[in-house]
Design goal:
Blueprint: H1 2-17, H2 24-39, E1 44-47, E2 51-54, H3 58-70, H4 75-92, H5 100-107, H6 111-123
Antiparallel strand pairs: 1-2
Helix pairs in contact: 1-2, 1-4, 2-4
Length: about 130
């Protein structure tokens, strides 16, 4: 649901602003970094083994990096942050919810749900903090 929301809102935002969606993947990653940083506020993040910063500053660091290294106004990165903020707000206020059929499919006992759960068990330790 998060990826779908991000992709659809980015394509709609690009269309409304008359922008070319040639770098949509980069801005979708900015969207994901913003959402991740909001769910992990206060976490220490190491930046290129040079310094540490808090997770909630990470998308803004990447925005500044685009400005300094590429020499252009990072309007597309900012668009990813804006849509990430909208998604996070909708998700935390329960305006945006995972559809019931997705929850039932995942929690069900069908072949695909079991396969997905077994695959998750093998990689879940990668995501533990």
């Amino acid at each position: 649901l998060m990826m779908f929301f991000g992709a659809v809102s980015m394509v709609a935002g690009y269309s409304l602003m008359g922008l070319s969606p040639r770098f949509l993947g980069h801005n979708l990653s900015t969207f994901l970094v913003y959402v991740w940083s909001r769910y992990h506020e206060g976490l220490e993040v190491n930046m290129f083994e040079l310094f540490n910063t808090r997770a909630e500053l990470l998308p803004w660091f990447f925005l500044a990096q685009t400005f300094l290294l590429e020499g252009e106004v990072p309007i597309l990165d900012f668009l990813g942050i804006v849509f990430g903020h909208i998604y996070h707000h909708y998700k935390t206020t329960n305006v945006l919810r995972t559809p019931k059929f997705v929850i039932q499919w995942y929690n069900g006992n069908n072949k695909y749900a079991r396969m997905l759960k077994e695959k998750y068990k093998t990689i879940s330790s990668d995501f533990e903090m």
